[in-house]
Design goal:
Strand order of the largest sheet: 3-2-1-4-5-7-6
Helix content: 40-55%
Largest sheet: 7 strands, mixed
Bound molecules: S-adenosylmethionine
Strand content: 5-15%
CATH topology of the largest domain: Rossmann fold
Radius of gyration: 20 Å
CATH superfamily of the largest domain: Vaccinia Virus protein VP39
Order of helices and strands: HHHHHEHEHHHEEHEEE
Shape: globular
Number of domains: 2
CATH architecture of the largest domain: 3-Layer(aba) Sandwich
Distance between the termini: 47 Å
């Protein structure tokens, strides 16, 4: 795709979808757009954008495509094990010391996709620290993914394959595939549409889980987000990132790395 065409597409996507593609890696996005146009059956981008402008369903499909939303329960299980063993005990102890009567954790799953990530968090919290009033906020830009998250499914066998038989019994409805999370459980999460590049961030969080989201963003966009994540955490709070991700020079953003995938906000 020619640069001029890409620039034109970026302007249209910003206007129609309110999504700024400047923040996404160029090469990858251009390849994805090329293949989407072919799949759409439209002859050129002008006619495709006309279709998007006239058809809300197509608009939603296009937005969902641009924001890749592959996910699974306990994705990279070793990292979740580390969260439970290395990170949660300290956070829980600090929360109790701060306020014995209100000792739940404030958690944000940023870029939660289809909900598998915040449900994983809730399962761990239920196993590690039941009877505490945790608050889990889960957000994503992609409305299609959020709809599935809010409904608690349908999830495929692949998406739930890392759940143990006991976890399936406790947290999923009987039957399946497809699988659904029990409503009594899914109601415990607050889901919201949120654009990381445009909307305000929550505050005073103990833990932010943002995994496999920024890998699609430019270096500048990532740097900006790490600063915003740092500001959203309380001192001592933790940012949990994807298994293949790393924050170079974490101290520049007010973080200290500990263990693979975990960054603690430095007390200032
Ligand atoms: C590959 S999924 C990761 C899902 C989950 N965190 C995980 O690790 O399994 C990336 C998610 O980032 C979301 N995303 C992409 N751009 C976003 C933006 N600007 N604001 C909020 N979410 C965004 C996508 O919609 C998608 O659901």
């Amino acid at each position: 795709m020619e640069l001029e065409v890409y620039n034109e597409i970026k302007r249209s996507v910003k206007r129609i979808l309110d999504l700024d593609l400047e923040n996404y890696k160029d090469e990858q996005m251009r390849r994805r757009l090329d293949s989407w146009l072919v799949r759409s059956g439209s002859l050129d981008w002008n006619s495709y954008f006309q279709r998007v402008a006239e058809d809300p369903k197509e608009k939603s499909k296009f937005r969902d495509y641009l924001t890749i939303n592959v996910s699974a329960f306990f994705r990279d299980p070793e990292r979740w094990k580390s969260l439970a063993e290395l990170v949660l005990p300290d956070l829980l102890r600090e929360a109790k010391a701060r306020s014995p009567m209100n000792d739940g954790l404030q958690i944000w799953s940023a870029g939660c996709s289809i909900g598998a990530e915040p449900y994983t968090l809730l399962i761990l919290l239920d196993e590690v620290a039941p009877h505490r009033r945790h608050q889990v906020l889960a957000t994503d830009f992609d409305q299609g993914a959020l709809k599935k998250a809010i409904q608690g499914g349908p999830y495929s066998a692949d998406e739930i394959q890392n759940l143990t038989p006991a976890q399936r019994n406790t947290y999923l409805n009987a039957g399946g595939p497809p699988y659904y999370v029990k409503t009594s459980f899914s109601k415990k999460i607050v889901f919201q549409q949120h654009n990381l590049f445009a909307d305000p961030f929550p505050k005073n969080l103990d833990l932010i889980v943002c995994r496999n989201v920024v890998i699609y963003f430019t270096a500048d966009a990532k740097d900006k987000l790490y600063r915003q994540f740092n500001a959203a955490l309380r001192p001592g709070g933790v940012l949990f990132i994807g298994a293949t991700e790393i924050i170079p020079r974490p101290q520049e953003f007010g973080f200290k790395n500990f263990g693979i995938s975990f960054y603690k906000k430095v007390q200032s």
